[in-house]
Design a protein that fits this description.
397 residues, two-stranded antiparallel sheet, 2 strands
Length: 397
């Protein structure tokens, strides 16, 4: 309970140490082993599952913030997901009935835990697709298919039942939409920065742009919707706008992008508006600020250029970043580089900051939403025992 409000927007090494200690304590208490059985109290079983999967979420959050792999390994736990039932159902004699499909007291948490499990699946499968640094397009497409199946299942099993007229359910739907859309960014981001198959690059760039846009739009909506203010304090645990950097670089790379207005609205919210500055100057200024902050960070951490990344002139000064990051023009340090962007298309200078206007609606995902007029369960079933590869599925027992 203490670590939940601590691990939000900013994650330090101290958080990683505390969460690591929490994981060991939880394992000593046996939370990593499912305690379902005829003699197990249903309330105790539900609480243990809730606690363990919240700890798994904290483990992923600190791993993302500080870089090391998650402490919890796939073979170290078999705890099922909590049952999707209301708390008062445990007071009734039929509390062992099949969990509900709609909104319950546990749905919000279960959505996050389901997404955490898929995140672990992506991490494991992504490592398996790398063969000596080479990415096989077919393997990557296979992983994308597996992830898409999980996204559809989460959408049909949980998100489609949430009523946007109820604030807490709208918040849960936004968080679920953010986390499921984020899967593509987690899976493909590293491949967009290397020389991989050209067909892969073409497909992945558009997928990445759409994923980053939807993730950022959901994050903005979580912060700006006045009815979601009671839960806004925890929004930073779901996203820290790191995807906006990719969008900034994308609009710098392709000023003619059809997503330009959406990207610029997000940049206005994240970095603030520049009313007296055109789009060209704004883009240059933002990149310069980011480069300066990167330069400061590397100097504070005393990051030295590795020998393999040192430039041909043999410079290896700790303050010389030319071997680490260079521009196509002259190899200057980032702090002295001012990119030139020629915008030949119109940019809406009158876009207001997002947080001063109406809140953003929940973005729709093409191909993800259910058809309200059709059958909802014809093609989708609950995950099987080995759905995630852990020899278990979501806990319905």
């Amino acid at each position: 309970m203490h670590q939940m409000p601590q691990c939000r927007a900013e994650i330090s090494r101290s958080h990683t140490v505390y969460v690591g200690a929490l994981i060991r304590l939880a394992m000593c208490a046996g939370l990593n082993r499912d305690a379902s059985g005829p003699n197990m109290d249903p309330v105790d079983c539900q609480v243990r599952r809730l606690l363990w999967h919240q700890i798994c979420c904290l483990d992923l959050l600190t791993a993302e913030g500080q870089g090391p792999q998650p402490v919890i390994r796939d073979d170290e736990f078999d705890t099922r997901l909590p049952r999707n039932i209301n708390d008062d159902a445990f007071d009734r004699p039929d509390n062992k009935s099949v969990p509900a499909s709609g909104w319950t007291d546990a749905t919000f948490s279960i959505i996050r835990y389901e997404c955490c499990m898929v995140h672990r699946l992506i991490s494991r499968q992504r490592l398996a697709t790398d063969n000596n640094g080479q990415t096989d397009l077919r393997d990557l497409k296979t992983v994308q298919y597996l992830v898409s199946v999980q996204k559809l299942r989460i959408e049909h099993q949980y998100l489609q039942y949430l009523d946007e007229a109820v604030p807490i359910q709208r918040c849960a739907k936004l968080v679920g939409r953010l986390l499921t859309t984020r899967f593509d960014a987690i899976l493909f981001h590293q491949y967009s920065q290397f020389d991989v198959n050209l067909e892969l690059q073409t497909d992945l760039r558009e997928t990445l742009i759409e994923s980053c846009l939807t993730v950022c739009e959901c994050a903005v909506a979580l912060e700006t919707d006045p009815e979601l203010a009671p839960w806004a304090w925890y929004a930073g645990a779901h996203h820290q706008y790191e995807r906006s950097i990719f969008l900034l670089m994308e609009i710098h790379r392709d000023p003619y992008s059809p997503h330009a207005n959406r990207i610029n609205r997000i940049l206005d919210h994240v970095f603030g508006t520049y009313p007296n500055m055109g789009s060209r100057e704004r883009s240059r200024r933002l990149l310069q600020i980011l480069a300066e902050e990167f330069n400061k960070m590397t100097q504070m951490r005393k990051v030295k250029t590795s020998q393999s990344m040192t430039s041909d002139n043999g410079s290896s000064s700790p303050n010389d970043l030319s071997g680490m990051v260079s521009t196509p023009e002259d190899g200057q340090q980032w702090s002295h580089w001012q990119p030139e962007v020629n915008y030949s298309h119109g940019y809406n200078h009158d876009l207001p900051p997002v947080n001063s206007g109406p809140w953003w609606p929940i973005p729709n995902l093409p191909g993800m939403l259910c058809d309200p007029s059709g059958s909802q369960h014809d093609e989708y079933t609950d995950p099987q025992h080995d759905e995630y590869g852990y020899g278990m599925g979501p806990g319905h027992g």
